[in-house]
Amino acid sequence: MTPDEQEAVFSVAQIVFFNTVNLIVTVTGYGAFVLGTIIAVVSLRRRTWGRSQTILLVCLLVIFTCFTWDVFYSGGFNVTDIRYTFVKTSPEGLVAQIEAADRKTLVWQYMPSWAATVNLLLSDCIVVWRAWILFQDEKFWKISLAVLMIANIGVNVADCIWGNIELSVEIASSTTLDWLSSIISLTVNIFATFLIAFKAWNHHRFMAAVSIRKRTRSESILLLLIESGAIYCGIQSVYAVFILLDVYTVVDIGFSQAMNVITAMSIVAAACYPIATKVTAWGPSFSRILEMPLLEGCSRSFLHNKQLPNLPVSTCHEFRQILAMVHHAIGFNDLPPELHHLVAEEITDTQTLLALTFVSQNIHIAYTPELFQSVDKVKGLITLATAQNERYPLRDTHPAAFVRHLDIWIPHEDLGGPEAHRKEVKLTRIVQEHMPRALHNISLYGGKATLRSLTIDLHIGTTSFAKLIGNIDEGKELFGSLQQLSIRCCFPVNDFRQSLAKLKMALGPSLRSIEFHRPLDDEADPRSFSKFLSQVGEHCERNGYTSGEYARS
To answer: Any transmembrane segments, and where (predicted)?
Structure first.
């Protein structure tokens, strides 16, 4: 054997050795992948079926097919290479055998890039989907994720096409598209993992704010996603470094074979990464992740005392107690809706109902109708005045649909001093600002004959009754079942007719009681009030009541 032949044998033996190592890495990863796939499918059968489960199952089957294809390629390539290099001898010598092996294995060279790329893109899509779920109503982050993912798909598909066109170049070394595709995939995963970590930090802060120190299942799931994402990003980073070195530096055969091992590890990681965390995405635990925007939004409103009924200091402690209780009694959250409705009907304490609405999305939906049947606080009025698109992350029915009694009164103290007066002025302005929108939402979401009682009790202020009621074209329907009406607000001369017209809408056949009190700074003349009382009297006669039974002024 000549020295050239000895060198050729040594080189071929090195290649076979590293290809065998690649095959061992790939097959070992495939075994773990198959085990994870079986667990995922078994867990899927136990869950409620939906569109997301169908999509994930399709992704799982595609990943399984592509990874099986890659294993088939690794084994078939090695067997073919060894067979035509060492087993089938040629009279022309070893060099001719190597050339024959190259020709026979050429068809195998077209296979691995597409299978690995499909797995990589599906893995990236699943990671992006998880981040997307956590930022459902934040357009900037969703657009950023979508743009990165579209660019990722375009570059990786272009890399595969170019690899098939310039196959001879691909065998010799890596190309610019190789490192560009690996870098953009790494960027997508780092960005999505960062968003998930950011959401986990916000969730941790929320749980700390309500004095729950024990790690929740949601936190455990998020940590799993973050840690697995960090490991996957680490593998991708090493692979990207090897690709860059292969493109821009002169490397030896040892480096090339080491890069092949890293490539095999990245292929295994791309297939196993979504499988490793897919079980959590299908289970009920991931539904708790979907409720995190709800809990965080509620906690922000709760801690900043916004868009909620008035909260005494004791409510904070009670809220923490109830949330901790339900957190440790997970079965309470899983009760059917009808049982939650029965429980809500038996709870007479508004603070308890309020605290329960913070527990989970299911409980929020069940207890909100009972909580908002009677609204008598200014901050409850603010909640009713909030537009539906401003209620993120709440997605359920607007609370204005459940209001039956809207009784807003501002306490007045003659001897309260300047501080009490400033507080009264502030609350009065809030009522004047939000009452029209609240009544509009009640008429919009509550349907016909919603209100049973309406109280507007303002000792000060110059806003007329017409402006407080607002432009409600459906006024007759809104007040169709009104039984009690109590008014203390201005009826100024400049829009007295409009106020009287609004009052006429409220004087329906179901009305049984009306109270009218003049505010302290009302400058209306007696003739205007005579028209007001005349309107009430006419209504009394139409409905068979005496003015003494019906009205108190």
So the answer is: 20-42, 54-73, 114-133, 145-165, 177-201, 221-245, 257-276
Q: Which two tokens stand for residue 404?
A: 């039956």
pLDDT at 415 over 90: no
Nearest to 516 by CA among 492, 550, 486: 486
For residue 552, the cross-strand partners are 515
Mapping DSSP to helix (H, G, I), strand (E, B) and coil, where does residue 287 land?
helix
Give DSSP secondary structure letters for 443-471. Answer: HHHH-SS--SEEEEE-SS---BHHHHH-S
Residues 221, 238: Cα–Cα separation, whole Å: 26
From residue 246, alpha-carbon distances to 27, 53, 175, 268, 485 in Å are 26, 41, 9, 21, 82
- Buried residues in 163-196 as b, exposed as e (16+ CB within 10 A): beeeeeebeeebbebbbbbbbbbbbbbbbbbebb
Q: Phi then psi for 214, rounded to 5 degrees?
A: -70, 140
What whole-number distance in Å separates Cα of residue 120 and Cα of residue 160? 12
Rounded Cα distance, 450 and 337, in Å: 23
482 and 453 Cβ atoms separated by less than 8 Å: yes
Among the listed residues 234, 239, 253, the one whose alpha carbon sits nearest the alpha carbon of residue 189: 234
Instruction: Single out the residue of 154, 188, 189 nearest to residue 277, CA to CA.
Output: 189
Which residues is 464 bridged to in the sheet? 490
In this prediction the pTM is: 0.54
Q: Cα(459)–Cα(456) distance, rounded to whole angstroms?
A: 10
Enter the tokens of residue 202. 């916000």
Q: What is the pLDDT of residue 423?
A: 84
Q: What is the dihedral of CA 430, 206, 196, 221, to 10 degrees?
A: -140
Burial of 412 (0-12, 13-18, 19+ CB in 10 A): middle
Across the strands, what pairs with 485? 454, 514
* More confident site: 192 or 368: 192
Tokens of 81: 């290479």
- Contact (CB, 8 A) for 451 and 508: no
Residue scoring higher pLDDT (502 or 325): 502
Q: What is the pLDDT of residue 332?
A: 63
C-beta of residue 393 within 8 angstroms of C-beta of residue 296: yes
**Rounded percentage of the chain residues whose pLDDT exceeds 70:** 66
Residue by residue, DSSP assigns 386-431 as S-GGGSTT--S--GGGG-SEEEEE----TTSHHHHHHHHHHHHHHH
What is d(CA 101, CA 107) in angstroms, rounded to the nearest whole number?
Answer: 11
Residue keyed to tokens 């007066």? 421
Q: 519-528 burial by CB neighbour count: b if 16+ within 10 A, else e?
A: beebebeeeb
Q: How confident is the model over 515-541, as a mean pLDDT?
A: 70
Tokens for 213? Answer: 């120190």
Burial classification of residue 415, based on how many CB atoms lie within 10 Å of its CB (0-12 exposed, 13-18 middle, 19 or more buried): exposed
CB atoms within 10 A of CB 117: 21
* C-alpha–C-alpha distance, residues 214 and 212, integer Å: 6
Residue 150 tokens, joined: 């579209």
